[in-house]
Structure formats: C-alpha cells, structure tokens
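Quarterly update from the structural biology core.
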Amino acid sequence: MEGSGTQKILIVEDFPAWQELLKVWLKHAGYQDVYLAKTGAEAIELARKAMPDCILLDLVLPDMDGMEVCKMVRSVPALGKTPIVMITAHRKDKIMGLEYGADYFVQKTENPAELLATLRAVFRRRELDLNLYRKGDVTLQMETRKVFFRELLVSSLTPKTFELFYALVERSPEPVNKDMLFTAVEGRQRPELSRALDILMNRLRKALPVMLQKRIKAVKGFGYVYIAPDGDKDAAR
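Predicted structure, tokenized:
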C-alpha cells in the first residue's frame, strides 16, 4: 500500500475495461478516493467539483481529445497547478502534450509499474511544492501554518505557536528542553522566560483539536514531548 487513502485521483478514460483496470490498480495501491469520467466534458465538470489531487487523462476521448481537455483544465484557476498524467500509446504525443500543459506521461500498458511510479513522483513533487512536513497522521503546511490531521485541516496557528508545535513534532518521540523550544520560537535563548514558554504552550494546546492536545506532554524539570501513537513514521519536509 503506497497511497495515503485520501489523495483524490480523477481517471478520464472512455473504454470501460481500461477504466476498470486503472481503478483496480489505484485501489490496490492504496488510492481509495477515485473519480471516473468517460468524456472530456464530464471530466472538466467533475474536476471543478471534486478538485482532484491528480488527473489521469487518456489522449483519445469520444467528444474531444485529451490535449483539449488538458488545455481547458489549465484554464481553470483553481485547477491550474493540478498534476495531469497523460496516458498515451504514442511517444510523439508527449511533445504536444507538454505544450498543452500535461506534467507526466505513461505508456498505455497492462503493467501498472510505470503508472504507480509516476504517481509516487507526482505526490512527492506536490508535497515539495506545497512545502509540507509530514509525521505519521499529522501534516504541517509550513508557509500557511496550517495543521492537518489525517489529511483534514484542523487548525491554523500563529507564527509562534506553529514554530513551537513544529519543534515538538519534528523531534518526536524525543523530549525537547525549554531552552531549545524557546530558541526555536524566538531565535535566541532566554532561560529567564521559561514562564512565557508555558503560556505559549497553553495557547498552542487551545488551538489544537483534543486528539492532538493529548499528545503534548510536560516532562517535569525538563520541557515537553510530543508522543504520537505507535506506528507513526517520519516524512520529509
């Protein structure tokens, strides 16, 4: 299983057998939120409503070709940066597809390896573009200071509370002493302001949902620690 289970993928394919095969591959790989469209018009309408994280687009469709669909998707501001993977049987189509705004290409084949590898690259690049930091079921969007829990937005933090939370999550499961935390927030050490850190920690807890509040523990005489459930794994910023 490689998908997060919450990444939305739109498949645009008019041939039922291929559409079903693509859906099966994605579901088996862990991508559970899959949308299906059989025509270009249907694809554009569904893309506007579902706001997918990636679009798999066949080149040949009954009402318009994939190049035109790609161009129309790119004309929608909210979809302008949505990754588009064009599925084609001909290498020559790649050059034209790039001109119309496609990001990736995969050959139409009965082996899912290339498609799944491409999707992994798509979502790695998307995380870098969005400047995300993931750890277990928590995702931090660094520029906007938003906190996501299991892919759902749960909090928007102030600059200082965000830096405090990031310092704890990044070093988890190790406890972090108060001097280090204060430095992370203020950029300098001020041991005499330990009380100010406690006040800021109280603000952070109030800004987080209960399930995340409970993960922050005080370590007597030392500092604080963020303790996530067993099985959480790091993910790069």
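The two ends are 21 Å apart (CA to CA).
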